Amino acid sequence: MRTTLKSDGSPTGKPNTRPTMGLGSLVQYALLILIISVVGYFFFVGVLAIPFFQSQVIYLNSVTLTWFQDVSIPEQWGFLRNQVTPFVLRTPDGETIHAWHVLPLDLYRRNEQQLIDEPDGIAADVTKRLSFKLLRDDPASLVVLYLHGAAGTLGSGWRPPSYRAMHAGAPDRIHTIAIDYRGFGASSGVPSEDGLLTDALTLADWIMHEAKIPPSRIVVFGQSLGTAVGISLAHHLASRPEPILFSGMVLVAPFADVELLTATYRVAGVIPILDPLSHFPRLLSFFNSFILHKWLSKDKLADFVRICEGMSRSEPKYDITIIHAEDDYDIPWKHSDRVFWHAVSATRPDETSFEEFEAEKEQMKKMLGAAGWVASHKTASGVIREAITKWGLHDRIMSYPIVSLVVLRAFRLENVH
C-alpha cells in the first residue's frame, strides 16, 4: 500500500486508493473490445440477410443527397431555364418514374427564346414541349440513355455535371434522358433487380417509340449500379427473337457481380460489407448465399457479346467501353479487369485464364502517361475497350473529357442514319 506525501515530503498517513490497471487488465479490456466488435460486425452482416436492409445497402435509395431540393426544378443545378424538361414515365407494372430530358447546349442556344417562353416544372404532357419536338423531329439527333448509380437522385453529386459531359462532343445533337429508378427520388415503388430492368426498358421503349429515335442513334451510359442496369438492358433486348442493338454502351466504374462486390465494396467508401470475410472463402460463400440481388454483370455482358458475335457480320454490332479510375475507393478498378476479361473471352472459342489474359493484355495497352492507359479488342462484330485513368474517383470521372470522347465514339457517327 502506498501513502501520499505532504508538501514538505512527510507522509500523510492516508493511503492512495487510486486503482491501477495491470497488464492482465489491459489484455482483458482489449479482448472485450475485440469480442464486442466481432459480435457487432456479425450482427450487422446478419441484418443484411433481411431483404429490406439488404436492399437498402445495395441501392441506398433512401439516401437522396438532395434533401430540401425539388428535383422538378433542374435550374437549381445550374441549368438554363428549360434546358432540362422534367417529366414522368409509367411502367407496365404501374410505377411512376421521374425523368429528365437534357437538351444539348448549342441546340438550346438556337431555340433559347422559345424555350424560355415555355412553362417550367414537370411537363404534364412532355410530347407538347419544344424540347421533345427538337428531339423527335431532327433526323440527326442522338440520345444518351443515362442510368445513374446507387444512392441519390437525378440531381445528386456529380450527375448534373456529367449530363453536360454527355453532349460536349456534339453540343447540337446529343440529348440526354435520365431516370430515377423506382424507389429513388420522386419515383414510386421499391427497387429490385427485375424492377430496375423494367424501368430501363420503359425508358428505352419511350425513346424508341414515343420519341421515334432508332437504336442506331442511342448509346447506353451507366455508372456504378447503372452499369449493371445498362448491361441487363442491352442483354435483354439482344436476346429477343428480333434483337435490338444500340449504337454503343459506356460503362463507368462497373462491378463484376454483387458477390464479388461485397468482398471489396465499402459503403460511402468507408464501411466494409463482407471485406473482413474475404480471407475466409467458405464463410464468405455462406453469407453470399443470402444475397437476393445478384446483378451478374460480367456474365450478362459476356453473353451479350456472344449473342452479337453469333449474328451476321455485315456491320459491327456492338461498341463497349469500360472506364474506371485507379483512385476509386468505392469500387476497386480491378472489377473492370474482370468485366473486360469476360467480355473478350466471349469472342474466343478457347478459354483463357484471367492470369493468362492479363499477361496478354499488356500487349494490347496503349499507355497514356499521366492519363492512364487503354486496351482494345476488336473483332468483325464489334469492339471492347478498357480505359483506366489515374484519377477521377468513383463519381467525379463522369464529368471528365474521357467520358465525352467515349460517348461520341460510341455513336459511330459514320453509321448513323
TrEMBL record:
Signal peptide from the UniProt entry: none
InterPro entries noted in UniProt: AB_hydrolase_1, AB_hydrolase_fold
Transmembrane segments: 26-53
Domain AB hydrolase-1, chain residue ranges per copy: 144-297
Keyword terms of this UniProt record: Hydrolase, Membrane, Transmembrane, Transmembrane helix
Gene Ontology terms, MF aspect: hydrolase activity
Descriptive protein name: Alpha/Beta hydrolase protein
Upper taxonomic lineage: Eukaryota, Fungi, Dikarya, Ascomycota, Pezizomycotina
